[in-house]
Specification:
17 helices; acyltransferase
Length: 475
């Protein structure tokens, strides 16, 4: 079920009313209801995959209890590895099996051993990369004794399958989300209003910004061989806004929807395109994933508190693995490695924690230095996005080389709505870069509701409601 679909427009208010008016008095009934509607939400795509998420939840529920009960470290590790191997095994089979077999066959062909790859015609379960990481964080945290094992199966299964963030994040930690299923939840008008603001803003990002940008982006990337340099530059720039509007829009809707049910999810994006260097960008982009890799991979490897050589190795590992997490294609691995190259100079010079505040904080406009820093960081990001969007590494290289063509004709039509909405979007993002869309609460009521009405009008008049899937569903 898509957030930008007619079905969800019916599903959400009906679920909201039942949740607060029928099941409000009983916490376990509320949790069971959340579990039921989450499985309905997920099964809307393909009911067969419900068994997969149920089995993964069951394994991790049992593993967490056994880790806590075990008296020896070896036994604790055994159940931890059962959890990790089960989750990574599912992820590897459904997402990476064909990639590894095809890559192995290509390698053999390169050394003269002709062979045909053996592939499986399997469907990638929606959101598998997200919920497997979410459940693994639970067993790892129980193993580290950072939280107690959950005894209530309904609360745990509801935590794993919580529908707002099930298929595209944010990737919640058990220490943050799971305890919220254990406490009585009361409806708060303030929290509900914040949720509606986020849903409205997320829909604007998705159906107005991302889906309109997609028309131009798809045309350019499909015909990059004949496109002019200017068209290719704009194709990369508009893809940057497409993927940001698409993914951060999903996160906003997910966080806003969770608020309607009394839950607080972590922030997943903080205006990343206003970053002044690549380290700041990765502190602001897909925060739930980058912090997951930091806490469960990077720091256990030694992080940056090791020798320079090992720190460089750890950095490449974290970025390449992050790229591979996104998809079974060499383009994602190159994208991750390229971001590691961007990040390394900052790490080696000790400047990777330099820009931790908000750009132009308490000022209306940035200074020239900040403007240059933001522009250069955005340019490097757009260059990396070419690999992310391309079908193959060869296509990406050809696209980049074609950027420097002397032909600057413009033959692709831009949707007229982009001329109007993209500048407005960038302006609003800049205005609310410090506190997000919630800062609207500090504006007087007339201006505030004028902005709400204008955003809603743009959604209905300029949005594309053709059930366009979110980009990150493929991951």
């Amino acid at each position: 079920m898509l957030f930008n679909s007619f079905e969800f427009a019916l599903f959400l208010p009906l679920s909201f009313l039942l949740y607060w008016f029928v099941f409000k008095k009983h916490l376990k009934a509320q949790n069971f209801f959340l579990l039921a509607i989450s499985y309905l939400f997920y099964g809307w795509w393909d009911w067969r995959f419900l068994s997969l998420i149920a089995f993964s939840s069951l394994v991790d529920f049992i593993a967490g209890q056994q880790i806590e009960k075990s008296n020896t470290k070896a036994r604790k590790k055994l159940f931890l590895w059962i959890s990790i191997c089960t989750n990574l095994g599912f992820l590897g089979f459904f997402k990476y099996f064909n990639f590894f077999t095809e890559s192995f066959a290509d390698m053999l062909n390169m050394v003269g051993m002709q062979t045909n790859p053996w592939s499986l015609n399997v469907i990638l379960p929606v959101g598998i990369s997200f919920y497997t990481f979410q459940t693994m964080s639970y067993t790892i945290d129980v193993y580290r004794e950072q939280m107690k094992a959950e005894k209530d199966p309904i609360a745990f299964f509801a935590y794993v399958s919580f529908f707002p963030q099930l298929v595209a994040g944010p990737i919640e930690r058990a220490v943050n989300l799971l305890p919220q299923f254990k406490i009585k939840r009361e409806f708060s008008y303030e929290q509900g209003a914040d949720g509606m603001r986020l849903i409205l803003w997320g829909l604007f990002k998705k159906v107005v910004i991302a889906d309109n940008c997609a028309i131009f982006v798809n045309e350019v990337f499909a015909n990059y061989q004949t496109a002019s340099g200017l068209e290719l530059i704009l194709g990369a720039v508009f893809f940057a806004f497409q993927i940001y509007g698409d993914f951060s829009g999903y996160s906003d809707i997910a966080i806003g929807t969770a608020k309607l049910f009394g839950f607080d999810l972590m922030t997943n994006f903080r205006t990343p395109y206003f970053s002044r260097d690549m380290a700041e960008f990765w502190r602001r982009w897909h925060i739930s994933l980058s912090t997951w890799f930091r806490d469960y991979v990077y720091i256990p490897l030694g992080g940056s508190r090791v020798g320079k050589g090992r720190a460089v190795f750890n950095t490449f590992v974290i970025f390449v693995v992050s790229g591979f997490w996104h998809g079974a294609n060499w383009t994602f691995i190159v994208w991750g490695a390229l971001n590691a190259v961007y990040f390394l100079p900052l790490l080696l010079m000790g400047k990777n924690r330099k820009n931790t505040d908000t750009v132009a904080e308490n000022r209306v406009l940035p200074n020239l230095r900040e403007l240059w820093q933001m522009g250069s960081t955005f340019g490097l990001t757009c260059l990396a996005w070419v690999f992310f969007r391309s079908e193959s590494v060869g296509d990406a290289w050809s696209y980049i080389l074609q950027l420097f063509t002397l032909n600057h004709d413009f033959n692709v039509d831009l949707p007229y709505s982009i001329y109007l909405t993209l500048p407005i979007f960038i302006f609003l993002e800049w205005c609310f870069r410090e506190k997000g869309i919630f800062r609207l609460k500090t504006i007087n009521r007339i201006n505030r509701y004028t902005i709400y009405f204008s955003i809603a009008l743009c959604i209905f008049l300029l949005g594309r409601f053709n059930n366009q899937e979110f980009i990150y569903f493929q991951f």
